[in-house]
Amino acid sequence: MLRYILVFSCATGLLVARGQQFSAYKPLNFPEAANVQDVATGDLDNDGDPDIVIGTDGGHVSAWFNQGGGVFGEAVRLAEAGRVYQVKLVDLDTDGDLDVTYVNWGAPDAGWCENLGAGSFSPPQTLVDELAANTACSLDWADVDEDGHVDLFLSSYINGVVAWYRNDGSQHFGPREAIVSCPYAWVCAAADMDDDGDVDVVTAGDGISWRDNQNHHFTGTLPYNGGYIATQLSDVRGLVLYDQGNDGYPDIFVAEEWNDRVVHYTNDGTGNYSWLNYVSDYATGLPGVEALRLLDLNGDGYEEIVAAVSDDNSIRLLSGSGSGIPLVTGVMGASGMAVADFNGDGLTDLVTAAADAGEVAVYTGDGNYGYTLLQTLTEVSGTVLDVAVADLDGDGLNDIVEAFYGAEVIGWKRNLGGDEFGPVQVIDDATPGVQRFLPRDVDGDGDLDVVTSFYQDRMVWYRNNGSGVFTAPLIITNTFGPGDEFDMGDFDGDGDLDLAACDASASSIVRFENPGNGNFEPPVAVATSQSNVRNLVCADVNGDDVADIVFFKEYTGGTMVCLNDGSGTFAAPSIVHPGLSQLYELTAGDLNGDGWDDVVIARGTTPSLLCMGSNGDGTFTALDTADVGEGILYGSLDIADMDGDGDNDLVAAATNLDYLFKWFANDGTGNFPTSDTIDVGYNAAGWDAADMDADGDPDLLVAYGSDLRWYENFIGSPYTVSGHVYHDADGSGTFSGGDAAFPGTPVLCDPSASVPYSGADGFYLFHTDPQAYTLSTPPPHPWWQLASSPATYNLELTELAPTAENVDFGFAAAYDTLVVSVTSTSAPLRCDVPYMRWLDLVNSGTQEAVVQLDFVPQAEETILTVEPAPDQTIGTILRWNFNLPLFGTKHIALLAENNTPPFLQLKDSVHAHMTAPGITFNYSLTHLRNVLCAFDPNDKQVEPEGYGEYGAIVIGTERLTYTVRFQNTGTDTAFTVMVRDRLNEWLDPAGIQVLGSSHPLTSLNVENDGEAVFRFENILLPDSNVNEPASHGYVVFSIGVRPGAPDGTAITNNVDIYFGGNEAVTTNTVLSTLVDCSDFGASITWLDGSTLLASDGLHYQWYLNGEALPGDTAQLLIIPQLGEYTVQVTTAYGCTALSDPFAALNTAIAEEGGLRMAIVPNPMGDWSRVHLSTPPPPGATLCILDLHGQTVRTERAVAQTTTLHRNGLPSGLYTLCLMAEGRRQTSGRFIVE
Q1: Model-level pTM?
Q2: Three-state SS at 877
Q3: What does the pLDDT read at residue 97?
């Protein structure tokens, strides 16, 4: 994946590229916990080693992929379901790889995930979803009809039936054929039970039944009692068909959960439904036996019967009597098992499913029934409370340590390298109230142990054996729990880590001396009468090589230090900083390079980081205050060298709606003049800044809920791709030092979501990951063509070859042309306040342009100052004459004022006359601006603006132009302004062209997630109170619209604007809707003798004999006279069409006074509306007459539109009359259906 930053210098119109510092997030989330019900093994990704699939009672199917050597990666969720009781791997679509099938107690009854190759699976697809109460509990596969496709057997617990579903070869199954019944049929299996060459089926529940396959189909109908052959059983949970006597006839072995036994029935091969004979209890003393499997445990080619025994947590090899031989124990709620050679040593290994623990364990086998735990694959539920990064297994790679709220688990994930992490390995799964943990070497053996505090009641530590295997918790204290308030440091100079903590119950700070082996001495008070201590760190603030203790109080706000005299004796607390409200976090480190640890305090009320520099004697001096601009999370502060310049930077997590991490770059003196952000999309519950990929720089690890992500920092990455994009004017096809730069050209890289652009000298460079890439670059405009070879580079970055250089692309003119963009931008116009105007020109053609530029202000507008000054002034016209070189820019700034009344428009114009050899080009631009007395100075505009509220534009529009305007309305100069634009998915991040900006644009960084970041460093934008006109700024850019957008595609866009480290200002959202009007048409419907109805739209204009009818702009028209009518209909999206003519040759004649009536709809259903051409006269009534002229109903007419309800009118034809002043005013006929 590529990381880049694009830097643009407006002074020269050239671009400079540098590497993007942080990648898009890399997810490390994992499935939720559930009782594991079944486990299966098979090579899912065809890499030669077996993988693992599980089904859980919590309703999901997940897979672990073997990375080689029996090391498994993160769990991959394949399907969500109800309660998955069985999984089977089978090549369902006969494409040569294993698909995943499962049975589900819920909907659907059975499903599958198609293997798409290389370990990629389709979303879950339904196999069967028709059983009553959805109580499917077992499935098996066999080719019943011998057509080359496996068919499905499915048992239903409630129905007590096994059915089979024919596979038609395209993975469509059915119809359902119920073939055998058995009370509470829990399990089913297919095999040739009578040695006739076809597949029969056996099921077991509260008994055993079987069904004979006769010539590739099952005969008879249910209830099929002929195959019900054992009744003395209950709660069968396991079934295997195994030829115990090697006579060619499979015997039946069933596991009875409640009777704690496995029962054996022999098959005599007669096939007359009496062949099943009870022999004996094959195994007894198996409490809660859950599953039976036939497994070849020692690789000798012979399968043996193995049982999962839930209540005694074991996997047992059954031998024909007694309780068998325990293979492994401690499998909590054992529910399933499978075998495979996971580590490639030629010996059979074992994988077990533990329902109660919600975990899968992998054991290596020795070939003689001995097994050693290799890895526990745990799926942990709950919220990630905190995370830390540390190398727990001593392999040189930092692993991840996590604490889970809800699951009460502390665990860790092994760093497998190459951005891959293993599943959670449990350190302790009984940790209620866990608050904080620290990876530290407690016992001095060179590996990192884990120290943990709990809410109120205790502190413990877990000893690491060096490979990431931890002991049970070792008690430090069980009299109090310090919560978050503890840290470790060497207090007495003996080389081991002691511990300091807050004992809230005694309102004191205490220390625990470590004699070196982790057997901590009882606590000794360091400072008493210290209530409400919120945070505590150990740091050497006076340079004597022993740790002092720094802490702050939550309510009184004081930050204190207890100085250590070198022997572990501490002085009384002294003040680091006096009282501050809402202190959230504390950390320490050397910020100014003087060798003393300084103190950083995070404040919440005015979100900021206060840096206090140590003077080396226990006193402190303020260094700098970094303004976070957002709320600060508890536990959200860290110190790390984020930019690789050798000094410590600050990192903080911000809250509110922006969910940003901010880091502040240290200039080496403890001042933090610049900052950057990482958008993580949520409030972090826990995080750490540490080197995740062993490249020497700190990355960012972030946790929220059960989601875990990390963001790679590329400062220290050795993997780079670089080259030049150049103007191949000499046609050599190769880059030489004399070739002119071709700036601002995107370099496309696959795979990557980001796009680097060439810089001012045509050079580009970006940091990335080790893998294979394909690089290419399209011509930025049709008049340029690629002149170098190759057109596409295929390259691979590896540890031995981490860089790819001289990846060059040369362009030459396809034809000579003159292309200069001209933009005119204005600050918002306020009443009686001078304002800024800007003109920008960019030459993107193939030749130098000779330009004559005229600016013509409106008469009401007075130009006060101009920079640069015009070459001529002709009346009110300002004229500049200049040459615009290839890739050159011109920026003109004008200060103006106007005397136009509010809410009116100013109109000025720009005219450009441009020439090049053999080419003349004239361009005119009219700029309309509204004069407002109140406005939002930070906004976004789009061109074309589009029609109506949807901003409708023609589908196929190739580019949109955005203008972002901003103003510093704060109280001090803004040194940095950053505009963050989350580009819509239909906008092409490789198609940005900067058309102008108010100030030199330092960089444009289009990040991996498609967010464009425009940065103005050292902009020195004054605040509006000091210099209102100069407090404004802008950036204008055009961007390509991706082709293929469907009709109605909405492209929304807004930006966040940051002034220094302040909170983001979010602009309005602009909307552009792509509309295809080619199929839109208008039509006229005749409703009755005097009423016409236009087809649906938003606006209407009626015409009579080609002339517009004034005021007739409604969808309905009551015909005023005979003639030819048309209507123009306009939709909400601006589509306009004129209808075909409608000839009104015979229409009802209005009564005296010209009053006309329309009845809609006609015929009437339950109601119709009566529309009159004018309001009815006073006292008017509506009379309904039947065919005989008899009055059926009369009601008052008080409005121009009246709703007429049927109210029991029989079907038929009626006349509606409007009566007033003793006579009929108008009438109309209607039908009741």
Answers
A1: 0.53
A2: strand
A3: 93
Q: Confirm if 19 and 720 have CB atoms less than 8 A apart.
A: yes
605 vs 584: CA distance, rounded Å: 10
| DSSP assigned state of 147 | S
Cα–Cα distance, 424 to 402 (Å, whole number): 9
Note the helical H segments in 464-580: none
Which residues on adjacent β-strands are paired with residue 892? Answer: 839
- Provide the residue count of the chain: 1233
Structure tokens at 1008: 């991996």
Task: Please give the single-letter amino acid code of residue 539.
Answer: A
Statement: residue 367 has pLDDT above 70: yes
The predicted-structure confidence for 51-79, as pLDDT tens digits, reads as follows 999 888 777 888 888 888 777 766 788 88
* pLDDT one-digit tens code per residue, 243-286: 887 888 888 999 998 889 999 888 877 655 444 556 678 889 99
Q: Find out whether 1123 and 1181 touch, Cβ atoms under 8 Å.
A: no
Place of tokens 């990846």: 807
Contact 923, 914 (CB under 8 A): yes
Alpha-carbon distance values, 692 to 654, 702, 709 (Å): 22, 12, 11
Q: How confident is the model at residue 742, as a pLDDT?
A: 86
The pLDDT tens digits of the residues spanning 622-677 come to 888 877 665 554 446 788 887 777 788 888 776 543 446 777 888 888 888 777 77
CA distances from 893 to 890, 1003, 1036 (A): 10, 21, 15
pLDDT of residue 608: 76
Band (pLDDT 50/70/90 cuts) for residue 900 is: low
Q: Measuring CA to CA, how many Å separate 852 from each of 879, 911, 922, 1181?
A: 7, 8, 10, 75
Residues 6+ apart with CB under 8 A from 952: 946, 1073, 1075, 1132, 1133, 1134, 1135
Per-residue pLDDT tens for 393-420?
888 888 888 877 655 678 888 887 766 7
What does the buried/exposed string (b/e) look like for 275-290 if buried means 16 or more CB atoms within 10 Å of the residue's CB? bbeeeebbbbebebbb
Here the tokens at position 815 are 């034809």
Tell me the two tokens of residue 671. Answer: 């001042």
Q: How far apart are CA 1116 and CA 1162, in angstroms?
A: 13
* H helix and E strand count, the chain: 0, 106
**Maximum C-alpha span of the chain:** 119
pLDDT at 316 over 80: yes
| Residues 309/316, Cβ–Cβ less than 8 Å | yes
Sheet strand arrangement including 772-776: 748-750, 772-776, 792-796
Q: What is the DSSP letter of 390?
A: E
Instruction: Say how far apart CA 412 and CA 431 lie, in whole Å.
Output: 14
Cβ neighbours of residue 281 closer than 8 Å, sequence gap 6 or more: 261, 262, 263, 264
| Predicted local confidence at residue 33, as pLDDT | 38
Q: Report the distance separating Cα 104 and Cα 1099, nearest Å.
A: 55
SS (H, E, C) 1070-1130: EEEEEECCCCCCCCEEEEECCEEEECCCCEEEEEECCEECCCCCCCEEECCCCEEEEEEEE
DSSP tag of 751: S
Radius of gyration from C-alpha coordinates of the chain: 40
22 band by pLDDT with thresholds 50, 70 and 90: low
- Mean pLDDT, all residues of the chain: 82
CB 995 within 8 A of CB 1038: yes
CB proximity list for 881: less than 8 A, separation 6 or greater:
851, 852, 853, 871, 872
Report the pLDDT averaged over residues 1061-1080: 87
Print the SS3 string covering 30-92. Answer: CCCCCCEEEEEEECCCCCCCCEEEEEECCCEEEEECECCCCCECCCEEEEECCCEEEEEEECC
Q: Please report the pLDDT score of residue 709 as a whole number.
A: 66
Whether the per-residue pLDDT at 1225 is higher than 50: the answer is yes
